[in-house]
Amino acid sequence: MKDREAPKDDAQGLHNKAVGKLAEVSRLTVSAVKNGRSCSDDTGWKIAAALDVDLAEILED
Length: 61
Prior knowledge:
Elements: H1 16-23, H2 27-34, H3 41-51, H4 55-59
Helix pairs in contact: 1-2, 1-3
Protein name: Helix-turn-helix transcriptional regulator
Organism: Bianquea renquensis
GO molecular function: DNA binding
């Protein structure tokens, strides 16, 4: 039986679902932002606050 790869975590070891719950947004929204999609200012601030980082850090290219 093959070992499955663990889901990729963000820099702080949180999965999209956990970040979404902390930020009060969906895990799909977190995934989209992590993959370079745009988001509203409000959503960006929520995710940044949940990760305890500056907004610029999650919006960098």
